[in-house]
Design a protein that fits this description.
Layout (H helix, E strand, L loop, with lengths): L2 H14 L12 E6 L9 H16 L3 E6 L6 H12 L4 E4 L5 H10 L4 E5 L8 E6 L2 H14 L4 E6 L4 H15 L6 E6 L6 H13 L4 E4 L5 H9 L2 E6 L10 E7 L2 H12 L8 E3 L6 E4 L7 H16 L9 E2 L5 E3 L7 H4 L16
Parallel strand pairs: 1-2, 1-3, 3-4, 4-5, 5-11, 6-7, 6-8, 8-9, 9-10
Antiparallel strand pairs: 10-12, 13-14
Length: 359
C-alpha cells in the first residue's frame, strides 16, 4: 500500500471515530477594557492603550480585546462593565480610580468573571487591584527640580485630594528638598482627572506664584504645553511627553502597564487566572523616569541614577525617616519606614508643601 493511501485510510479512520488529524485551536480569551478617556489624551489613557497593544502583540490570537473609551466615573461605568460581562468577556480591566464601587458591584453579579481594578483599594474574590508606586519616579523628578529651580518654588497641578495624589505631591517635594532644603511646593487642585482648560489655568496660576518647575497628577499635556509657552520647565506624567514641548520637558514620570497586562493575560490564556493584588514600582518595571532631557546637568543625572539604583535594590524607601510633617513635627524617626497600608492612606502634607490639604 502506498504512503498516500495509508494516510487517507488513517484520516478516514479518525473521521469515523469523530476525531481530527489536526488539533483545534483554542478559542481566544475575551478581554474587556474600560477607559476613562481616549488615547488622544497623551497621558493616562494613552499609557493604558500602549500597554494593551503590547499585550496584543505578545499574545496574538490567544486574546480578543474589546475597549470602551470615554466612560465617566458614575452610573455609566457600571452599565458599561455589566455589558462587557454580559457579552462573555472573561477578564475585565477597569482603568480608573472612580470605577471601584461599580467594579465591585458588577463583580458580585458575575462571580465567574475576573475583574482587575486600577489604583483602587477594595478587592473581593474576583475583583483584584493593580497599582503603580508613582511616588518613586516622582521623588526622582523632585531631585532634578530641586537642583535646577532658580526660584526655589515648585508647582503641582493636582486632581483630587486622595492618598494616591497626596503621596505623589509629598514624594516630589521630598526628592527636591533632599538636595535643596529651601524648596517649597505650591499646589492647585482642579477636581478633575482630565480637563485641559483647568490644567492650563492651574499651571498659569502656579507660574504666576513663582513656580519654575511643574509636575502634575492629571491626564493631559496641557501643563507641559503651558510651561513651554511661559518659559519654565515641567515633567511629563503617565506617559512620555518629551515630544510635546522639548524645550520645557525635563523628564517624564511614566506608567508602564504592559508587563502586567502580558502577565495576567498569559495566565488567562493558560487557564490559570492571576488573582494577586499588585502594587509595583520601578523594580517591577511598572513605572519609571523616562526621556531625561540633555538640559539636566550630568552631575544631577548621576544623582538621579544613584537614587534610582537604591530604590530598585530596596536600599532606599521614599517614605522613610527622618520625615517631617508640614508643621515641622517629626512623623518618622531615622530608620523608621511607613508600611504599605500607611502609604496607601496618606492624608498629610510633608514639610515644604504649602497650603491646606482639602478634605
Amino acid at each position: 500500500m502506498s504512503l498516500s493511501i495509508r494516510k487517507r485510510s488513517f484520516v478516514a479512520a479518525l473521521a469515523l471515530a469523530g476525531l481530527s488529524m489536526y488539533s483545534q485551536a483554542a478559542d481566544p480569551v475575551k478581554v474587556g477594557f474600560v477607559f476613562f478617556g481616549t488615547p488622544g489624551d497623551g497621558g493616562w489613557t494613552f499609557a493604558h492603550s500602549l500597554a494593551v497593544k503590547e499585550a496584543q502583540k505578545a499574545l496574538g490570537n490567544k486574546i480578543a480585546v474589546t475597549i470602551v473609551e470615554d466612560v465617566p466615573e458614575n452610573a455609566d461605568a457600571e452599565r458599561v462593565i455589566r455589558d462587557l460581562a454580559s457579552k462573555g468577556n472573561q477578564y475585565i480591566f477597569t482603568t480608573s480610580f472612580g470605577y471601584m464601587e461599580q467594579t465591585l458591584k458588577v463583580g458580585k453579579s458575575f462571580p465567574k468573571v475576573e475583574f482587575y481594578h486600577n489604583t483602587g483599594f477594595k478587592s473581593s474574590p474576583n475583583v483584584h487591584i493593580y497599582n503603580s508606586r508613582m511616588y518613586e519616579p516622582a521623588y526622582l523628578a523632585g531631585i532634578i527640580a530641586g537642583r535646577m529651580t532658580k526660584t526655589n518654588t515648585l508647582g503641582y497641578v493636582a486632581s483630587f485630594p486622595i492618598p494616591e495624589v497626596v503621596r505623589n505631591i509629598n514624594a516630589y517635594t521630598m526628592g527636591a528638598r533632599s538636595v535643596n532644603p529651601n524648596v517649597k511646593t505650591k499646589v492647585v487642585w482642579i477636581s478633575s482627572w482630565y480637563d485641559p482648560a483647568k490644567e492650563r489655568q492651574a499651571a498659569e496660576t502656579l507660574i504666576g506664584q513663582g513656580a519654575d518647575m511643574l509636575l502634575q497628577n492629571t491626564d493631559s499635556t496641557a501643563t507641559m504645553q503651558t510651561a513651554a509657552e511661559k518659559g519654565v520647565f515641567a515633567f511629563g506624567w503617565n506617559s512620555d511627553m518629551s515630544a510635546v514641548s522639548p524645550k520645557a520637558h525635563l523628564a517624564s514620570v511614566t506608567q508602564l502597564w504592559g508587563s502586567y497586562y502580558v502577565k495576567v493575560l498569559t495566565a488567562a490564556a493558560e487557564g490559570k487566572p492571576f488573582k494577586d493584588n499588585v502594587w509595583g514600582g520601578m523594580k517591577e518595571g511598572m513605572n519609571g523616569l523616562s526621556s531625561v532631557s540633555k538640559l539636566v546637568p550630568a552631575a544631577v543625572q548621576k544623582e538621579v541614577d544613584a537614587k534610582k539604583a537604591d530604590l530598585m535594590s530596596g536600599k532606599f524607601k521614599v517614605f522613610s525617616g527622618p520625615l517631617k510633617l508640614q508643621d515641622g513635627s517629626l512623623k518618622l524617626q531615622a530608620g523608621q519606614q511607613m508600611t504599605d497600608p500607611e502609604i496607601d492612606s496618606i492624608k498629610f502634607y510633608v514639610e515644604g508643601v504649602e497650603g491646606q490639604l482639602p478634605n
